[in-house]
Amino acid sequence: MSHPSTRQAMVLTAPGTPLVWQELPLSAPGPEQVLLHVQACGVCRTDLHVADGDLTRPKLPLILGHEIVGTVVALGSRVAKFRLGDRVGVPWLGQTCGQCRYCRKGRENLCDAPGFTGYTLDGGFTDYTVADQRYCFPMPTSYDPIQAAPLLCAGLIGYRSYRLAGDDIEHLGIYGFGAAAHITVQVARHFGQKVYAFTVPGDQATQAFARSLGAVWAGDSTSKPPVELDAAIIFAPVGALLPAALAAVCKGGVVVCGGIHMSPVPSFPYDILWGERVVRSVANLTRRDGEEFLALAPQIPIRTEVQPFPLAAANEAMDRLRQGLIHGAAVLTMA
Ligand SMILES: [Zn+2]
Ligand SMILES: [Zn+2]
Predict the structure, then answer these.
(1) Burial classification of residue 143, based on how many CB atoms lie within 10 Å of its CB (0-12 exposed, 13-18 middle, 19 or more buried)
(2) Ligand nearest to the CA of 95
(3) Is the whole-model pTM more than 0.90?
(4) 209 φ, ψ to 5°?
């Protein structure tokens, strides 16, 4: 397969400034890399945190985007896992050291020297990109690329958050009903659990969206659910939700913070943590999470609600996500 010698990309040149359209040279893939013709790349809240400077020390200039679906158009010399024409997904975890205490114990999501797609490595807001084949996933062919893109972070992080919320859950709370939540609710329903969705107070459109995906209850984040929750996942980057979620879970319940960034958590009385309640965060993903989740998604089958934007409209897509105007997931398309 042939490919051009340049690529088009929406580039972050400095935090706090809009992305700019640039034509950049396209180099051949390294020995472990695949060169992909990108079909779609999801826009994740983490992209906003990088662009806005909440996450510090990005590679600069940087191509954002870590929910990449593309087709292999060239192979590095050591690539055996993929062939030309394969549909491949590139997630947030782009590299690990393989040697630190975490990598050696199978906890590569916590690697001390990681590379993250669209943060410390260039990502997918572009028409062509390279990726390390060892961290790429074969994508289920039952999804089209635009529908599949949100599985790669919203789906994966949602799934890891869901698993870490514990076993034996009947009533699961989800705070913040965006891309990750709209996938996670389908996983929970598949396993026969009841989901209670909490949104920005008064956001009835999102509450209706949550109910349409099978939430048994949807309401304001300031309100109490009708039952005590067994566990809760917080996807919204709002620290004040942590004490609210703790107050809503039963004894022994887990509150999982699924986002990479959160505003400061206000102090709270010890009695809402007492009773062996647990607060924990979820960081990144392991390749095993990806393999498990991408095998599960087509079985359920998970359906993603996507709002496509052309690559050149990346700034608009990010603004709409920032304003809470996206139902489901925003996805850039390169067709
Ligand atoms: Zn490591
Ligand atoms: Zn993400």
Answers:
(1) buried
(2) 1
(3) yes
(4) -60, -45
Q: What is the mean pLDDT of residues 294-304?
A: 97
How far apart are alpha carbons 317 and 45 in whole angstroms?
11
CA of 285 to the centre of ligand 1 (A): 13
pLDDT in tens, 120-132: 999 999 999 999 9
The domain spans of the chain are 6-151+305-333, 156-281
What is the crossing angle of helices 287-296 and 154-164, to 10°?
100
Q: Which protein residues have a CB closer than 5 Å to ligand 2 (ion)? A: 44, 46, 153
Instruction: Work out the angle at residue 207's Cα, subtended by the Cα atoms of residues 195 and 252, and round it to the nearest 5 degrees.
Output: 30
Q: What is the DSSP string of 62-78?
A: B---S-EEEEEEEE-TT
| Total residue count of the chain as it appears in this document | 335
Residue where the block lists tokens 């993903």: 285
Q: Return the CATH fold of 6-151+305-333.
A: Quinone Oxidoreductase; Chain A, domain 1 (3.90.180)
Shortest CA distance to 230 belongs to which of 146, 162, 304, 138?
162
Scanning the chain, the segments in alpha helix (DSSP H) are 45-52, 101-104, 145-148, 154-164, 179-190, 204-212, 241-248, 287-296, 314-322
Asked if residue 2 has pLDDT above 80, the reply is no
Which residues have C-beta under 5 Å from ligand 1, the single-atom ion?
96-97, 100, 103, 111
- Rounded to the nearest angstrom, the distance between the alpha carbon of 69 and the centre of ligand 1 is 25
pLDDT above 90 for 1: no
CATH class held by domain 156-281: alpha beta
DSSP H or E segment with residue 293: helix 287-296
DSSP structure class, residue 27:
P
